[in-house]
Automatic annotation (TrEMBL):
Belongs to the metallo-dependent hydrolases superfamily. HutI family. NCBIfam families: hutI. It comes from Microbacterium helvum. It is found in: Cytoplasm. Transmembrane segments: none annotated. Its EC number is 3.5.2.7. Catalyzes the hydrolytic cleavage of the carbon-nitrogen bond in imidazolone-5-propanoate to yield N-formimidoyl-L-glutamate. It is the third step in the universal histidine degradation pathway. The keyword Hydrolase applies. This is Imidazolonepropionase. The lineage of its organism: Bacteria, Bacillati, Actinomycetota, Actinomycetes, Micrococcales.
Length: 389
């Protein structure tokens, strides 16, 4: 088994909480990687000595858990640059654009979709993301959803079945039939490749009652629920997610006091996706209000061709800090440990013995630079399962 000691770390973010420091920060620290796991972390002066160890001198740089991006849609064909361009001259974002990507995805071959997925995987890794979720939702036929789930499972264990993304054009006059399909034949074709079931609970997509049916059907097939809710306006998505015990409700842009109270009293994570508001010129979600109420907040990219075509978690951190009232420490936690919690994972987003050896070394002395130096490529080295990329 290969072993690597990363030493001379100026600032190590462990996310092992201590009183007054949720990020469990160590200075002048070292981490020992053995195989694909972390074997030890602590003060550099206490680091284990062994001749067989490869040693990496961090040169005083900051090291932290790899980013956990708990919300992406990176299996699709085509793009919507024209729609983005129109939006920047005043055309508002509408969920209906999803149908254009559905048409392009259906037309794409498996090879083309696989080639693009591999490209997105490289892009995510290069920016420090070591765990990412991928949703279906641009196929919307039994065969297309199943192939998107199968292809996504080639690049991540975190596959989400999102047959309930929108009602496809061919079912627009028969939406009940489409919901039946999503809850039955399409679900049976996708469930073997997926861990999660998701629904876009929003005006223009699925009603709260339809959404409840979709989640319940997925759960009956062993999938765990998560929800797209309260993105484009107020609605029942958040309260439905909490009532169903969802791991996460994502977007949370338009929240009532009742929504915030429901989240605060639950184990459902509020996953904020500021790339959407950045790309659609909509108001950002109020992260401060959620954090002050005691809600667990995660940050994710929502990488998709319509509302947020970026895979950059450092950008999410910068936006969260500069536009959403989060401190740098809160944003870094939300992009690592928060994402892990949104995926109900205890082996990632943390630096402690037994966790996966998924780490990022920044070309910076502190994680604060992720927000302080927006747009600068600060990722120096990424270790994925103990291997430097
Ligand atoms: O998370 N909200 C629904 N789905 C995506 C947008 C998809 C698209 O516009 O293609 C989202 O923002
Ligand atoms: Fe999304």
């Amino acid at each position: 088994m290969t072993a690597t000691l990363i030493t001379n770390i100026g600032e190590l973010t462990t996310n092992v909480a201590r009183p007054g420091d949720a990020l469990g920060t160590l200075h002048e620290a070292a981490v020992l990687l053995e195989g694909d796991r972390i074997a030890w972390a602590g003060a550099a002066s206490d680091a284990p000595h062994a001749d067989a160890l490869g040693t990496v001198d961090a040169g005083g740089r900051a090291v932290m858990p790899g980013f956990v991006d708990s919300h992406t849609h990176v299996v699709f064909g085509g793009d919507r640059a024209d729609e983005f361009e129109a939006r920047m001259t005043g055309t508002p974002y509408a969920a209906g654009g999803i149908r254009r990507t559905v048409a392009a995805t259906r037309a794409a071959s498996d090879e083309e979709l696989r080639r693009r997925l591999k490209g997105f995987t490289r892009e995510l890794h290069a920016q420090g993301t070591t765990t990412f979720e991928v949703k279906t939702g641009y196929g919307l036929t039994v065969d297309d959803e199943a192939r998107l789930a199968r292809l996504a499972a080639e690049v991540t264990p975190e596959v989400t079945y999102l047959g309930a993304h929108v009602v496809p054009a061919e079912y627009s006059e028969r939406r009940d039939e489409y919901v039946d399909l999503v809850c039955d034949e399409m679900l049976r074709a996708c469930a073997p490749h997926a861990r999660w079931v998701d629904v876009f609970c929003e005006r223009g997509a699925f009603t709260p009652e339809e959404s409840r049916r979709v989640l319940a059907a997925g759960m009956a097939h062993g999938l765990l629920p998560r929800v797209h809710g309260n993105q484009l306006g107020p609605g029942e998505g958040v309260r439905l997610a909490v009532a169903m015990g969802a791991a996460s409700v994502d977007h949370c842009t338009y929240l009532s006091d009742d929504d915030v109270a429901a989240l605060a009293g639950s184990s459902t994570v509020a996953t904020l996706l500021p790339g959407v508001e950045f790309s659609t010129r909509q108001p950002y979600p109020d992260a401060r209000r959620l954090l002050d109420a005691g809600v667990t907040v995660a940050l994710a990219s929502d990488c998709n061709p319509g509302s947020s075509f970026t895979s950059s978690m450092p950008l999410m951190i910068a936006l969260a800090v500069r536009e959403m009232g989060m401190t740098p420490a809160e944003a870094v936690w939300a992009a690592t440990a928060g994402g892990a919690q949104a995926l109900r994972r205890t082996d990632v987003g943390v630096v402690r013995p037994g966790a996966r050896a998924d780490l990022v070394m920044l070309d910076a002395p502190t994680r604060v630079h992720l927000a302080y130096r927006p747009g600068v490529p600060l990722v120096h080295t990424v270790w994925l399962g103990g291997t430097p990329l």
